[in-house]
Amino acid sequence: MGNHHGHGSKSGNATPNSAVHSRNGSRKSITGSVSETDSQSQEKPSQMLPVEKLAKILTEKSQIEEGVNGITLQVFSRCLFPRYLVLGEKLFKYFHKACNSKNTYINTNAFKQQCETYLGIIDDEKVREILVKMWTSYDEEKGVDVMTPDDMKSLLMSTYHISMDHYSEGPQMCLSCNKTLKAVVDSCFHTKKSLSSSFVTHWIESNIPRLLFPLHRYAVHSLATSWRTLEESEPNLAAGERSEIEERPGLELATPVLEQQNPFAQVKPHPHLLTMSMSWLLAGALPPIYSRPQRGHSPSNSGVGLAKMSFLAKLVCAIPSHWALLYDSDEMGLGANRFLHHVLNYRGPTLILLRVQDGQKFCIASPNEWKESHHYWGGEECGVFQLLPKFQVLERGSKMIYLNLSVRGYPHGLRAGKDPRAPILSIDAGFEKVEWQKIPYYLECIEVWGCGDQVSRERQLEVKKWEVKEAERQRTVKLSAADWLDHPDRYLLELAGRPQYHQN
């Protein structure tokens, strides 16, 4: 999984000491003279030492393997991204275009400048914009960078593979990943063959704002730490020989950990509505409250002592949250009472997944504990999504969840939407039908996943145990003879033909 093959161009016939044009606004300008630039590099602060070492190692390898006084695409991709060659190719071409290089390779000093600039990006909007541009191509007729459906699928597949390969429970594979990615691409492009990069960037920001961040974190992690592994590897590699660089430990991305089914079950359990790929997609579309990671231990920086390296380590190292299955109608029965029994008293964010008769799937995200009320409730992190056949955000905002099964004079059932007169989704009191866009559908299955911490789940289970014990206690209450004489059940038994009752 995650093995992509990139195709790089061979180095052209150009002088190694060609001029490198500086970018406006950069912290240090690069002159046309290599000797002058080298003298400036000696004055750089020690915090950029990782970039200096990485550039030196890659330049030496490019010189040995391809006879180029610079950094080539093949060396860059193979050494930094051996398992994700597509990402390596896209990032190299972005650096190459940004430094206005006239050669097929990147000058060493220009490469260091591009690395420093890329490592300094912390704005989320800028991250999304750059990643989209890395997968676009320039349309001369329209005069803008455009993206095709295949380009977007490649971008999503790259970040998906990285997230699944660094899953906390070990590398994962999801058989429905192609269907999940197709739902996203179809929703963005509809029937169009290409879209501008700005449109795709805005669409991603509106629908899946956090989905691409693992791709950026991984690129930052590789640029900042790969020099250590490269120093430990063979100093001289034969030309054309592939270097299998092992991934450094400590990189854990915030993909939710799904509660696994019983592996010792005699009968193979049915597949859940929430697949692994769909949980990855929802984690990128939902606010951080649903998958807020806990900070893990950063990789050891012994011998380095760099403030920037420590910051980068904290940026990419995170232990993802745990999503626990609270209710599955296929196993626990479909009905309002069953829903309330398994969902109430869970004090954490939850996801309600619905599957209707024609295969469509929906999701209702609630950041608050579920409760019965004839008023709409919920925080700003509420959301309603269509998952299949297209992935799209139907509505977001506060006070858009309604659950009433007992208060008379008000509609009964479960509803989601800001407009009480026309909710986005509406489930009847019997949990048999779902109405969307004024069209009724038969409800086939409901799943509820708790997105809080382990404490929230344990407290809910404790409440359930107490309720069971309390019910048993009340059922086995023994009455004294004096209490039984005035008990209403005694008169009911006499009316039924049992005038006498013998106590054991």
Instruction: Profile the largest sheet.
Output: 12 strands, mixed
- Overall number of domains: 3
Percent of sequence in beta strands: 15-25%
Return residue spans where pLDDT drops below 50 for at least 5 consecutive residues.
Answer: 1-47, 235-250, 262-268, 293-319
Number of β-strand runs: 17
| Radius of gyration computed on alpha carbons | 30 Å
Oligomeric nature of the chains: single chain
* Helical/strand content category: alpha+beta
Measured distance between first and last alpha carbons: 70 Å
Helix count? 17
The overall average pLDDT, rounded, is 78
Proportion of residues in helical segments: 25-40%
Task: Please tell me about this protein's structure.
With 504 residues, the protein is α+β, with helices and mostly antiparallel strands. It has three domains: 1-29 and 42-259 and 272-320, no CATH class; 322-452, no CATH class; 454-495. Helix content is 39%, strand content 15%. It has 17 helices and 17 strands. It has helices spanning 34-41, 49-66, 73-80, 85-98, 108-119, 124-134, 149-165, 177-189, 197-207, 213-232, 276-285, 307-316, 329-332, 336-343, 454-475, 481-485, 488-495, and strands at 137-139, 144-147, 195-196, 257-258, 294-295, 318-319, 322-328, 350-356, 361-366, 373-377, 383-388, 392-396, 401-404, 413-416, 425-427, 433-436, 439-450. The strands form three sheets. Strands 4, 7, 8, 9, 10, 11, 12, 13, 14, 15, 16 and 17 form a twelve-stranded mixed beta sheet that branches. The protein has a three-stranded antiparallel beta sheet with strand order 1-2-3. A two-stranded antiparallel ribbon has the order 5-6. Strand 8 and strand 9 (361-366) form a beta hairpin. Helix 6 (124-134) crosses helix 9 (197-207), helix 7 packs across helix 10 and helix 10 (213-232) crosses helix 12. The longest helix is centred in the last third of the chain and has 22 residues, at 454-475. Mean pLDDT is 78; it is low at 1-47, 235-250, 262-268 and 293-319.
